[in-house]
Specification:
two-stranded antiparallel ribbon; Rossmann fold; 2 domains; elongated; alpha/beta; 289 residues
Amino acid sequence: MARVQPPAAPTAPKLNISQQKITRGIDRLNDRISELEAFDLNSVRNGPTAELKGLEVAIKDTLVRCFGEDTSTYKDLQSAAVLAIYPRFRTTGTPIDYSGRIGKNIGRCIELLRQGQRVLKEDLADYEHEHQTTLKGGPHAEELSRRVFVVHGHDDGSREMVARFLEKVGFEAVILHEQANQGRTVIEKVEAHGDVGFAVVLLTPDDEGCLKGGTPEPRARQNVILELGYFIGRLGRGKVCALKRGVLEIPSDYAGVVYESLEGNWKQALGRELQEAGHEIDWNKVMRS
């Protein structure tokens, strides 16, 4: 007759906490470790003191805050809150020096708390990896908006060329002057229609300008520079692509940032930028457009 196997002991769950709480937990454990390392063992030569008991309480409270009382990690680390050894006397009545034994307990406790820090750091690394996967369009990523704001100056040909390309590869091009005014100022319209997943900024030589007393040089319209900064702030630099035509002055604050030339292979470059921002790109459409 087959023997009935006893049911396996239930495994305590792992606590699921936020990135902020993980970081705070690492700091709390570091505080307890610092307190243990600074503890004066001479104060416990004759046995536990109120200060030592206070450390035990603080350690237990920190472990509960970091991991939760019903988790497997807490159960593995809870003995870190046991520091005290209570004094006994020899038959001669001479008290024992307990500082050495308590010192060993403190060393064991520090190692357990460091193990807790390693667990939290691994959880933090997992969280950051999952977050990056989400940003790049992983399996749990939220669907990105395929609306792309096109910032432009007076070069209507470049504006239409870029807008039509975006539409051919499956995006909705948002062009400000095509949107209803509804009594709003330009910046109010930008804010109202700025809920996009990406922005393309056309730097074309529509204006001239220079330092006082200098020689005028071609530059983009001032509204284009304003909106470039706006969308970098709103979306992040990785979701803004600047396309440049001809030779023109680039704002010093933008110097060193990569932009693509409209005289070059800008379609493939823009496609790569959109893909890196997390969008799915049909490269057959890009090549045919």
